[in-house]
Design goal:
Blueprint (H helix, E strand, L loop, with lengths): L34 H43 L13 E3 L2 E3 L11 H13 L16 H4 L1
Antiparallel strand pairs: 1-2
Length: 143
């Protein structure tokens, strides 16, 4: 039996096969006479379902984007973008500007990492915490 809530869809892909329920769904004890509680629960479930579907769609889109960006890098390396290159080094195609940028990262030695640990232990380092809701979807469903 196929349920619309179990079908993953993306604007770029056909819906995948129905996924089995991964986590057991809790049953809620809602008073039959309390329509307000039932309505609130329905709203919560609808919101969670919308978030779930958006997160799955974003994941699929990010995978597609990663592949397309890799292809674009190959096109650039092979000279297929040369026709679109401007004097500033940017590429202009269909009102989109693609500016080559370089990202630098630092890799620190083990000594620096040890110093960080020492500062944690001594109290010289400060810990900052924030609280938020992390939305998790069962990993089997993301595949």
């Amino acid at each position: 039996m196929t349920s619309a809530s179990n079908v993953i869809s993306s604007p770029f892909r056909r819906p995948t096969a129905t996924k089995p329920a991964i986590w057991p769904l809790p049953t809620y004890a809602i008073d039959a006479n309390s329509s307000n509680d039932a309505m609130t629960m329905t709203q919560v479930e609808q919101l969670i379902q919308q978030i779930r579907e958006l997160k799955l769609t974003i994941k699929l889109c990010e995978e597609d984007l990663k592949g397309h960006m890799a292809t674009l890098d190959e096109y650039r390396a092979s000279g297929l973008l040369d026709h679109y290159e401007a004097e500033d080094g940017s590429f202009y195609v269909l009102n989109c500007r693609m500016l080559p940028v370089t990202r630098s990262t630092w890799a620190f030695s083990k000594a620096v990492k040890e110093l960080q640990e020492q500062e944690k232990v001594s109290g010289a380092a400060t810990r900052q915490e924030s609280t938020y809701l992390r939305f998790e979807i069962p990993k089997q469903e993301l595949q």
